[in-house]
Amino acid sequence: MPSLCYDITFTGRVQGVNFRWTTCRIAQRCSVAGWVRNEPDGSVRCVAEGEPQALDAFVKAVEDAMAGYINETKITTTAATCDLHGFTVRY
Question: What is the pTM of this model?
Answer without folding.
Answer: 0.94
